[in-house]
Structures are given as C-alpha cells and as structure tokens.
Amino acid sequence: MATKIGDHAVVLGGSIGGMLAARVLADAYHRVTVVDRDDVAAVGPQLRPAISWAGHIHALLERGRQIISELFPTFVDDMIALGVPVGDYGSTCHYYFNGRMFAVTDTGMACVAANRPVIEDYLRSRTSARPEVVVRGRTDIVGLTASADRSRITGVRVQARDGEPGAGQEEAIEADLVVDATGRASRTPRWLEEFGYTRAPEEKVHMDLTYTTMDFLGPLPYDPLGEDIALVPTATPAFPRGGIFARLADRYALTLTGINGDRAPTDREGFLAYAKTLPEPAIYEAIRDAEQRGPATSFRFPASIRRRYEQLRRFPAGYLVIGDAACVFNPVYAQGMTVAAMGADVLAKQLARGVEPTPGAYFRDLAKATDSPWMMSAAADLGYPQVRGRRTVATRLGNGYMSRVMAAAATDPEVARGFMRTISLIDPPQALMKPAMLKRVLLGTGAGKPTTLADLHRSRSTPPAPTVADPRHPR
Fold this sequence. Notes:
It is a single chain. This protein has 475 residues and is α/β, with parallel strands linked by helices. The protein has helices spanning 16-25, 40-43, 62-71, 75-81, 89-92, 116-128, 188-194, 268-275, 281-288, 336-351, 359-382, 393-408, 413-423, 435-443, 453-459; strands at 6-12, 29-35, 86-88, 93-97, 100-101, 110-112, 133-136, 139-146, 153-160, 170-174, 177-180, 202-216, 230-233, 242-247, 252-258, 297-307, 319-321, 327-328. The protein has 15 helices and 18 strands. The strands form 4 sheets. Strands 5-4-13-14-15-12-16-18 form an 8-stranded mixed beta sheet, with helices on both faces. A 5-stranded parallel beta sheet has the order 7-2-1-11-17. A 3-stranded antiparallel beta sheet has the order 8-9-10, with no helix packed on it. The radius of gyration is 23 Å and the shape is globular. It starts with 5 loop residues before the first strand and ends in a 16-residue tail after the last helix.
C-alpha cells in the first residue's frame, strides 16, 4: 500500500492470528506494536507458556497455506529448508472413515507438516523483521482505553511483567486501531460491557474433547509412513476414537482424541492400549516398540464457540477481533490456523480500500469467511448424539449426506479429492452437491476397489510414474 492510512496499530496477542494481522497492518500503518505476555523474542520454535496446547499435532489447511504464501512467498521452500515434510494432501496424508482408507489421489494441495511452534516462530521472525513492527513481550494486557463518549477505542492499557523495566506500573499505549488476537481467552466480551456495549451472541457446541499426544524418536522399528506424512483415522459416531499419526521434521507424533469425556491415558501402557483401539492397526504397530520422546501431554477442549460480532447494532470504532478471539473451533478439524489466516485476509482486503476498517463491514466479511468452516465442524460434532448444541433439519440432512460422501471417498478418487478440497477450505460444501458429484456419491458411478495400507505399500514397491504436480509448489 503506497499511502499509509494511519500512524499506529496495536495487536493484542502474538501467535498465528496476531502475527498475520501485524503483517497486513504493516502495509497500512506507520507503526505496528504486537503485545504478548510471553517472552516471544526468546522462545524460538518451542512451546511457550501461553499456548500449552501447541505441542499437539496441528495442520495447516490448503487455504491457510495459500494466504501465508501470498504474504511470505518463500514459505513452503523455507519450511522444506528446515526439514519439514511436505507432500500432496491426497497421496501422502491418508484419511480413514469408519475404518476404511480414502482412495489415494493427487489433489495439488500441499500438506506442510510443521508443528505449530515452527510456523508461529516463522511468522513472528518474518513479521518482526518489518521496520514498522515492534513485538513487545512479557507484557500483560490490562484493558482498553476509549474516547470520552466511548464510541471509539483509543488504545490499550498494559503492564510490564515482573523482572521487566517498569514492572507493576500501568501504561497506556495510544493507537488508531486495536486488534484483539488474544485467542480463546479473549476478554473483548467483558471489555465491551464495561464500555456500555452488549455482548455478542454466541453459538456453542459442547463435545468435551480431549487430545493426548506422545512423541517418538525415529527411525521407527516399524514405519508404516515411509516418505508419506500422516495416517488419520477420523472419529465418527460409529468409531468415536480418532488419531493423527504424523512424521514431523524432528520426530514422529501420535495424537489420540476422545469426546464426551473419553480420554487417552498419558502413561505409556495406557496410551498404547488406547492406540490399539484405532481402526488402523499399523499405528499401534509403529509405536509399540518405538522410543518415546518425553512425557505424553493431554489437553481438554470443552466446546467450540462462535461470537457473532456481526450481529451487534453498536460496536466501537477503532477496534476489531480476529482468530480464536472471534471463533474457537474443535481442533480435530484443523481449522484454527487457517481461519486465522482467512481473518487476516479479510483485514487485508478492508485495508486495501485505503481507509480505516469499519467494524460493521469487517465483521460481516469475517462472518462470511467463517460460515463454511463453522458449519462443517459444528455439523460433524452434532452427529454424535451426546454432543450438546443446536440441531436443525439441515444439520441432520447434511450429516447424512456427508456420511455418504466419506464412504464413497474410500473407493472413488474424485470424491476423495472433492472432499479434501472442501475440508481444506478451498471449495465450499456446496461443491459436494453438484450433479456430477451427487451421481458419484449416491450411485457409485466412480467406485473402484477399496485401498488398504498394505495395498498402497505393494503399489509403491515399484518406481512411481512421474507426476505433473510438485507438492512443494501446488497448483
């Protein structure tokens, strides 16, 4: 952007959504300050206290990769240089539905198998290298400041943490625009009430999910992945336990999931027993005798929450919300990082108009970007009878059809490809309802022989045919 639209923007929170917001704001404001409670400059590509769940397997969906690559054109090549496995989603990541593996197919979409701290550190280091951006770590966010009539947010009140200069003394940072990227712990609802505004309506889906992850050192005594990236037996009402077994840059990892209070143990014996219940036995065989890398960790996620800021009649100027602070997704569907990137894309398009974004227009566009991922994840969770949330006739019909889609994906590569494009947020769910796809799903016109992992290994015992798509640079 040739002309700046403001002097100073402040981003609250320095994780994925915060750093992407700071990156796009740097094109529009002379100065951008990112405030975070952790010592983000020193943490590097490691876990940090404020985001303890980042150690569990995360996935960057294709739409998120596209947006990040637009902002950082060498992103995929930089990940490869760090040793991060990269491959095609349809041929190196193998999904299972009710125990049946999806048909193997090239999708042209890249799976970048970096754990979240690596991606977060990359975005932070590249964004903070911009001359406009300053990252202020070890700083607590106390609250907001507003104009006398409270129609505009004018800045943020902060306090340095113990051991920092000025610790214990509150400081006001003035800003033309403040963006809340503090994630699921966002205090925006309370802050709005303090200034006389109404809380945003909320939608909730209570699934009581637990993630439990154990890491392993390579090489594995038995390695079912080889050069592939992941085996993903997805949980379904018929098979309510799920898992993600992945090859990362420096280790192998298995994340086990359970809902409605079902939880994988963190001790090795209990963890192995839980893993043995997954519908793909190769995962248990891979880790049974593998060397464990540190203790297992567990994380509980009680509910998905969507805050409908677009429905508010009044909202203060100079203030926006992004990422998990606006909508927290069930992490099983790997939508969080990508929807945060989509929020940054919405913000960038608003800024491209050359004027300060107005909350009404921004939140309407953010809602449109959030609709599809929310609809898919909420509907999938509501397919479990015990999950609490609002069910509609459309939800039940959609779940019935999606079950048919996923069953067809086991024998039809085109259906598998279409489904993966949808869950990667490239195509809308309606793409799976087009006549040609309906014919394949309902009549089985593209059905072939189901594929097993053993079939895949046998097929790869001979050199593969050349492929046009390079997974490092997807179509």
